[in-house]
Amino acid sequence: MARNAPLLNVITLDAEDIDSLKEFYVALGWPLTVDEELKVFELRGGVLALYPVERLARDGHAAPERGRNGIRFALEVLVGEPSEVDELAQCVERAGGRVTKPPVDADFFEGRSCYFCDPEQNYFEVAWAPPDNLIFAAARRAASQTG
User: Fold this and answer.
1) How many Cα atoms occupy the beta-carbon half-sphere of 140 within 13 Å?
2) Of 67, 118, 139, 140, which one has the fewest beta carbons inside 10 Å?
3) What is the reported pLDDT for 7?
4) CA angle at residue 92 from 30 to 144, to 5 degrees?
């Protein structure tokens, strides 16, 4: 990895109903570390932040997007074992999310994956791949960076 490569490990999602969205992630068992206007979940290798849609739009000098009509992006959640893909999909459904692609052997790489969306239609892919997968290896190296 380049010596001065930027660190990208904080993802901020706009939230129309921030309290409900927070409860969804709490129900997944994700550790909530900041519970103020900004809600922050500290995950291995990164941080997921929730910010009220109007505040995020104002902060970014942009108009808020309205109408969630399908996938706009997918955040990748890497897990350590194939069975964890299935376990997280079950947890998502119990927490009130929607699994859009049930856990299957992956189509485009050796491994296992599924897709889900949270109550505000933010999409995630949950995936496991063996250690020799180049993308997963790069993500694991990035997660171990310090400094």
Assistant:
1) 14
2) 67
3) 67
4) 40
Of 93, 102, 143, nearest to 126 by C-alpha is 102
pLDDT value of residue 67: 66
Q: How far is CA 68 from CA 15, 39, 95, 118, in A?
A: 12, 21, 20, 12
Structural domain boundaries of the chain? Answer: 10-143
pLDDT value at position 3? Answer: 63
Burial class (CB in 10 A: 0-12, 13-18, 19+), 16: middle
Q: Which two tokens stand for residue 124?
A: 């995630």
Question: Six-digit token pair at 71?
Answer: 């996938």
Question: What CA–CA distance (Å, rounded) separates 16 from 27?
Answer: 18
Check whether domain 10-143 has CATH 3.90.76.10, yes or no: no
pLDDT digits (tens, 9 = 90+) for 98-132: 999 999 998 888 999 999 999 998 989 999 999 89
Q: Which residue has the higher pLDDT, 136 or 113?
A: 113
